[in-house]
Specification:
This protein is mostly beta strands and 151 residues long. It has one domain. The protein has no helices and ten strands. Strands 1, 2, 3, 4, 5, 6, 7, 8, 9 and 10 form a ten-stranded antiparallel beta sheet that branches.
């Protein structure tokens, strides 16, 4: 799966549009006062829109390194407990170069636009890596069911 490993250098040619998010975690290095944000996604490797849509999806860990200023805005609102959450999908990931007092040559403000563009995750990070943890699976929807994501 080496060809599915993606780094900060690939940012301009990669799209995460409609990739489902399954979870978030942090890899903390307390001694160095650093942490990484790890997002478990269904990465759409291939999207074929012939007569019937077909997707090749590879579950992957999208990891942002040296994160700062994390802000998460996900709000399904008050519906009297009637509004069901149908999942969190990435619409777009944007980055903007910023200056920081951290000892890093390159640093960026990242914004992950979610679902209907009213929800987002933003933070500072030095870059990202993405690693697939299983080979791509063919499916007719844009995400994998839980039993398809098992290693």
């Amino acid at each position: 799966m080496k060809n599915l490993d993606i780094t900060n250098n690939d940012f301009e040619r990669i799209s995460w549009h409609d990739n489902m998010i399954h979870g978030f975690s942090f890899d903390v290095n307390a001694e160095e006062f650093r942490s990484d944000l790890i997002i478990d996604i269904d990465y759409i490797v291939e999207w074929s829109c012939d007569d019937e849509s077909e997707f090749k999806i590879s579950p992957s860990f999208l990891t942002f390194h040296d994160i700062t200023d994390l802000y998460i805005n996900i709000d399904w609102g008050e519906s009297g407990f009637m509004n069901a959450a149908s999942g969190i999908f990435i619409i777009d990931i944007q980055r903007k170069s910023v200056e920081t007092k951290l000892r890093m040559k390159n640093y960026y403000k990242w914004t992950i636009i979610l679902n209907d563009k009213n929800h987002s995750i933003s933070f500072g990070a030095s870059g990202f890596t993405q690693k697939a943890y299983i080979d791509p699976v063919s499916t007719d929807i844009q995400y994998l069911k839980k039993n398809q994501r098992i290693v």
